[in-house]
Amino acid sequence: MKDNLSIIKININEAGYPQLLSKIPSPPKAIFLRGTAPNHSKAVAIVGTRKASESGKSIAYEFSRYLSRNGCAIVSGLALGIDAAAHQGALDENGISWAVLAHGLDSIYPSSNSGIARKIIDTGGCLVSEYPALTPPYASQFIVRNRIISGLSEAIIIVEAPKESGALATAQFAIKQNKPVFVVPGNISSSLYSGSHQLIRNGARLVTKPSEVLDDLKWSSELGEKTSDAFRFENETQKRIFDIIQSSGDPVSVDKICEITKLNPRDITSSLMQMMFNGIIIDEGGKYKSSKIL
Q: Are residues 26 and 84 in the same domain?
């Protein structure tokens, strides 16, 4: 990512500067970008903790996939955890994703996400920063850049935000910018959701599936919801997991499914999230049961 010639500077009074961003309090006087300028009619930010659980990353990934399939650009900060999962979900749908960085665009931090950054550019998205090349990633810059993540977006989705999460700052910027904040709830005993639940108590919108985001924003779903009667398993892993849940009678935990199938926990969690979104299973306190007999 050392190709400085591909870094473009756009001043706030120039064509190509994102219209949504120009309307926020204290917008950047100029932005630097690599890729296609971030002007899109439907953009949603998905953010959360760097120290995400596998379940949280699967939720972010599946929300991103669904929203991408329905014409939304996905905005995040290219951090580890929730951010990376959100970007990857968009990429796997050949969708548009924008990554807002807290340093110069001549490098990528963390470097482990360089591959994601390259794919974002190659698929019509972009990397965005208010900092010129050679600016290092100082800690103080990460909170400040979060106003750009929300500023580029029509709405913000929070997945797994502990009390000290930078995602909470993104939510506060969104509130000041009059943007809706959606929060995915979680286990009440998990510290990963302590900040998330406080946002809900303070008036953020609880959301359990991505179609609810489209409904609240009055953006029509291009795909529509699958009903359980018409449901078709997307792969053999989903069918295998569902057969275990269906035959059990009682709600089944992820650990139990892992024990029976010997599958990777991440693959199981991802399949469970997708089946939940499609209305085929229900989460009952961290265990899963079928929504109806098929």
A: yes
Let me know: does 21 contact 120? Beta carbons within 8 Å.
no
Whether 193 and 236 map to the same domain: the answer is no
Interhelix angle 54-69/265-277, nearest 10 degrees: 40
Instruction: Give the end of a domain, one of 186, 217, 248.
Output: 217
Mean confidence (pLDDT) of the chain: 90
CATH number at residue 273: 1.10.10.10
Query: Is the whole model's pTM more than 0.85, yes or no?
Result: no
Distance of alpha carbon 245 from alpha carbon 251, whole angstroms: 7
Residue 226 has pLDDT above 80, yes or no: no
Enclosing domain of residue 25 = 4-217
Of 66, 52, 234, which Cα lies nearest the Cα of 158? Answer: 52
pLDDT of amino acid 28: 98
Q: Measured between alpha carbons, how far is 228 from 45 in angstroms, rounded to an integer?
A: 29
Confidence check: pLDDT of 294 > 80: no
pLDDT computed for residue 249 by the predictor: 73
φ, ψ for residue 158 (rounded to 5)? -105, 125
- If you average pLDDT over residues 114-119, what whole number do you get? 96
The tokens describing 209, both together, are 């599936």
Alpha helix ranges (H) inside the chain: 19-22, 54-69, 82-92, 114-122, 140-151, 166-176, 194-201, 210-217, 236-248, 254-261, 265-277
User: Which band of pLDDT confidence, cut at 50, 70 and 90, is reported for residue 248?
Assistant: confident
Non-local CB neighbours of 16 within 8 Å, separated by 6+ positions = 10, 37, 39
Please tell me the predicted confidence (pLDDT) of residue 222: 61
Claim to verify: residue 8 and residue 103 sit in the same structural domain: yes
CB of 280 within 8 A of CB of 246? Answer: no
- DSSP assignment string, 23-39: TSSS--SEEEEEES---
